Amino acid sequence: MKYDVVLFDLDGTLDDSAPGIVTSVMHALKKMGRPVPPFEELVCFVGPPLLTQFMEYCGISQEEAETAIEYYRELYAETELYHVNIYPGIPELLKALKDAGIRLAVATSKPERFARKILERYELAQYFEEIAGIHQDKVSEDKREVLADALERMKVRETGASCVLIGDRKYDAWGAARMGLDFIGVSYGYAPEGEFEAEGVKTVLDSPAELQAFLLGGE
């Protein structure tokens, strides 16, 4: 085994969450009186911190973006939370890693309460020692903060365990680099073509099966 601890991003890494996220973004834009682009254009909201994406995409202030997130969450929590599809092969990957004795956790920029509900609904929570996300009273947290929280809960630094983050966007790669973690990118998520190459990510895998082979060393 290459690592003692494997951290997973959620959206775009374990599940295809675009349906619920984009529908909620559309709701927020409509309530703000802004144009509502087609679904495909708004897929760019899957992955980045919502606060950052609303500010950059709409050209609005942080205060306005915080209001947009409130509108987003009111629909997301009510009807869109479970509108996700678990990527084929993910349950098998998680089971194989856990059976091999690897400690698993989730580190997501989604509110922790939402992440936990999704993973419990789709019977994946059982594989994770910790599920770390942003705190309930915050609209956004840097990925580094979420990773630091997960590592502290698992006492990874104290044990000297080898650790890697698996994610689908440059924001995951940035967080891993700032925390001194190895990073593996997955191409089946939401990264635009060439994003990982531009960030210098050396290991990019195309499927959960490839992840399993890489992490278990062919076991």
Order of helix and strand elements from N to C terminus: EEHHHEHEHEHHEHEHEH
Overall number of domains: 2
N-C termini distance: 8 Å
Query: Which CATH C-level class of the largest domain is it?
Result: Alpha Beta
Mean pLDDT: 93
For the report, how would you describe the main beta sheet? 6 strands, parallel
Q: For the largest beta sheet, what order do the strands appear in spatially?
A: 5-4-1-6-7-8
Q: What level of helicity do the residues show?
A: 40-55%
- According to DSSP, the number of beta strands is 8
SS-based class: alpha/beta
CATH topology of the largest domain: Rossmann fold
Oligomer status: single chain
CATH architecture descriptor of the largest domain: 3-Layer(aba) Sandwich
Rg over C-alpha atoms, rounded to the nearest angstrom = 17 Å
Q: What report would you give on this structure?
A:
This protein has about 220 residues and is of the alpha/beta class. The chain has two domains: about 5-15 and about 85-215, Rossmann fold, CATH 3.40.50.1000; about 20-80, DNA polymerase, domain 1 (Orthogonal Bundle), CATH 1.10.150. Helices cover about 45% and strands about 15% of the residues. It is built from ten helices and eight strands. It has helices at about 20-30, 50-60, 60-80, 90-100, 110-120, 145-155, 155-160, 170-180, 195-200, 210-215, and strands spanning about 5-10, 15, 85, 105-110, 130-135, 165, 180-185, 205. Helix 9 (about 195-200) links the parallel strand 7 (about 180-185) and strand 8. The N and C termini lie close together (about 10 Å). The model has no long low-confidence stretch (mean pLDDT about 95).
